[in-house]
Amino acid sequence: MSDIVIEAKELTKQYKKQKAVDGASFQIRKGMICGLVGPNGAGKTTIMKMLGGLVLPTEGSFTIFGGSSEKELAHARSRMSFMIETPYAKNEMSARENLEKLRLQKGIPDRKRVDEVLEMVGLKDAGKKPVAKFSLGMRQRLGIAGALLSKPEIMVLDEPVNGLDPEGIIEIRNMLKRFNEEEEVTILISSHILAELSQLCTDYMFIRHGKLLQTLSAEELHKMCGEYYHIHTDNDPLALVTLQNKLGITDCDVLKDGSLRLFERLDELPLISKTLYENGLLPTTLHVHEADLESYYMKLVGDDNDEHNQGNAETDKA
Amino acid sequence: MTNIIKEMLRQTRRDKLLWLGAVYIGAMLGAMFSDNGLTTDTGSSFFGFAMQTLYIMIPLILGTMAARICGADLRDKTANYELLFGKKRREVYFGRFIASFIACFTVMTVIFAVIIALPTALNGWGESLTARNAAAHLALVYPIMFRILCFFTAFTFLCKNDIIAFVVAIVGTLMCFVFVFAMSELADIELTWHLAVSDLMHILDFSNTTQGFVDGKDITVYKAPIETAAAVRSLLASFGIGSFWLFGGYMLYRKSDIS
Question: Model pTM?
């Protein structure tokens, strides 16, 4: 297909005995905003580094804009921009000097471009302040400015909103959406802020322990997330046993506060309610809830590795 | 690659640390030379004296500059952007080497020019050494500098850190000199082209002198002819071993993962 801009086949990276990426195969099409979702150490950054040419694959291959040779990939990367991990910058230089250095390294003739991107990311007023004195958020903005310098066709962004304040997150999200919609920029993005990704991405790739678990569109995710009943009663353990024994329910989570998540018999609310009442249980919460990306992610990859999501996890499979 | 070279040279020109080093070395050499005939000796007499001091400085200056020019961007990872921008590893590596080469050879040429031009302008060239012989010595120094620079470039790319490369350049060079001195004094083994520093010592050795009487004046005459065989060995070693370091370093860098 001609609209595939990045295609990986069995991409593997092995460091000594550990496989950081294990046989990942995926396609990214033009115009996608693809979220790479996974816990720390899942292999997200390694995939991005392999695409950027910083890390060499142990096995497998990938193409960017259809090219896979060193020369073709170098040419393809000149049409892309990357922001991987903490943005690289010279600490003793100002934001403008750092961007000027990048402009010269890349050979971008337009001198005004530096001012334009500084304005875009809100660093125009940073003046001569050295990057060493920047906050994490300001460094992130500088990294994004560097990524925007060359008007890329594909952007690869590793945790781009990490360290930004809520206002900054919204600004960056809107900016990325605008680039995607107006200039058809394809974006591969990873983030720990899943709620943020869910507002931005058109597609998702879930990864854990280097293995790509699932690739699906936002539409497919929406369907797969589906709905569940959130049930809280005056005696949740008894409610669980009752629902299991009386209604034969098996697909049910117990949350940390003891309340229940019921994923089956979603069209039988009166029956569930009646069963609880008949067994002397008083439901204090009984409503339909639509699962979001976080819920789906936690269900898919579990919560054992990801400290960031422990607050949201709250699940123990019943 | 042109963009990388231009940017590296621009960065080098603006590098305060390098300028500070240049001022320090300039002041040190100036103080040392002004007390030893910079303005009173003839050009040829001072040339012979100065080269015997300078051969220790040359690897230190080259090592420091190569470490800084090649290694600073590797340490703070700003060199990664070049790969991410679509530059080939070949361009990143050889672009930095060429930038270091230009900067180092410019600096060394300026130092040589001052050493030759200042006393010659004040007191004439003199009879201590023919200009042809001095030119032959200098012509052989440049390939050795190439060899040293190749090694330090490769080493800096290997450790990806200008500070480590700088420390190794200083300590390693001094250790090499100690080793060469020890070999010649203790074991009576003269290393010439085998090591870049011993080759440099050999080419710039003006310690063998005699006294002459020319135009009513006593002068020091340097007995430092360069044998053709030694010159050829030095040239072959400089380009051969230099290329080995340079391309060996590139092969390692080409296959390495960059964190």
Answer: 0.79
